[in-house]
């Protein structure tokens, strides 16, 4: 699957790199500083659109360029290379990026980025408050300070959820899409980013956190397959350890059995869904069944024990 901004609000073609960066700065995309390029050379282009709280730009450099942002203020940037090569330096790390590779730049970050001649890249600006709000709605637990993303690259073409969300967003015509729908897609993108790009937050602190790599592997697998009936032996095989070793690990790291850990993650996701977009929810039963809870009386009791209220109370509060 290839990604490109097929529907856009503005387009500028065959201009210098300097004109592109001036355009982005004038649209308050970020405070770019062009350090090195043949600024009088043409061949650069940009496509741009707003979608709800998101600002999206796809731009092609007609020559090798080097840019710097003094500080990324009150926003996060998802940087994705569509073609060519790039390197980005931030938080003391240098990351090499090729086609499909992405990196999340945190608010407050100073960074430099270089692009090869003819490179094509996509940048999505996400306001800080919106990402934090979305994280809370999806059951994540920001620690109060701005979320910090780990400086490493993720190939989004190999990440099913975020790849499909990005494709849909790039193909949406903002003028023909309701504000509510734009907001919904923007929240889905935030959720995809939080799942695919490592940061200093975890799913809500009601679920015991562990830095152990096998726990992280299991957590990622469960979240990627959250509506499935997840087999414990499959998790042991994923970690390349025995079933008994997996149980011992979970007891030591979380104080939970693997089954209880999975259930708590599912309950957190259900809480986020019941607290989210009511247009896609008919009743609690539908949501419970979606995540594999077939005994509704037991589900309500388990939800209350973990969340602190009945699922119907969560849904009722959100509807007011």
Structural overview:
The protein is α+β, with helices and mostly antiparallel strands. The protein folds into two domains: 10-196, Jelly Rolls, CATH 2.60.120; 206-319, Arc Repressor Mutant, subunit A. Helix content is 39%, strand content 23%. The chain is built from eleven helices and 14 strands. The chain has helices at 17-26, 128-137, 160-171, 179-196, 213-224, 232-239, 243-253, 258-274, 284-290, 296-307, 311-319, and strands at residues 10-15, 32-36, 44-51, 54-60, 65-69, 75-83, 86-90, 93-97, 101-105, 111-115, 120-127, 140-141, 154-155, 202-203. The strands form three sheets. A seven-stranded antiparallel sheet has the order 1-3-4-11-6-9-13. The chain has a five-stranded antiparallel sheet with strand order 2-5-10-7-8, with helices on one face. It starts with 9 loop residues before the first strand and ends with a helix. The model has no long low-confidence stretch (mean pLDDT 86).
């Amino acid at each position: 699957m290839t990604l490109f901004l097929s529907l856009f609000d503005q387009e500028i073609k065959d201009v210098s790199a300097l004109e592109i960066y001036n355009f982005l700065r004038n649209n308050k995309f970020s405070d770019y500083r062009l350090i090195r390029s043949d600024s009088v050379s043409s061949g650069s282009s940009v496509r741009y659109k707003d979608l709800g709280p998101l600002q999206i730009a796809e731009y092609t450099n007609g020559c090798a360029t080097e840019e710097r942002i003094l500080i990324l203020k009150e926003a996060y940037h998802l940087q994705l290379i569509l073609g060519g090569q790039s390197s980005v330096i931030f938080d003391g790390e240098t990351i090499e990026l090729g086609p499909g590779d992405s990196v999340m730049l945190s608010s407050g970050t100073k960074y430099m980025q270089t692009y090869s001649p003819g490179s094509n890249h996509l940048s999505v600006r996400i306001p800080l408050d919106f990402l934090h709000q979305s994280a809370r709605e999806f059951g994540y637990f920001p620690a109060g300070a701005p979320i910090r993303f780990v400086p490493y690259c993720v190939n989004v073409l190999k990440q099913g959820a975020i790849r499909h969300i990005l494709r849909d967003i790039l193909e949406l015509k903002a003028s023909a899409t309701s504000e509510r729908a734009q907001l919904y897609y923007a929240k889905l993108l935030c959720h995809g980013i939080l799942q695919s790009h490592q940061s200093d937050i975890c799913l809500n602190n009601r679920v015991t956190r562990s830095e152990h790599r096998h726990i992280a592997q299991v957590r990622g697998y469960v979240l990627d397959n959250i509506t499935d009936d997840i087999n414990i032996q499959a998790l042991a095989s994923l970690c390349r350890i025995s079933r008994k070793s997996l149980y011992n690990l979970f007891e030591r790291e979380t104080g939970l059995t693997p089954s209880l850990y999975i259930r708590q993650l599912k309950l957190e996701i259900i809480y986020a869904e019941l607290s989210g977009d009511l247009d896609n929810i008919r009743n609690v039963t539908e949501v419970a069944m979606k995540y594999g809870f077939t005994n509704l009386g037991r589900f309500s009791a388990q939800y209350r024990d973990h969340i602190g209220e009945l699922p119907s109370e969560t849904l009722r509060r959100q509807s007011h």
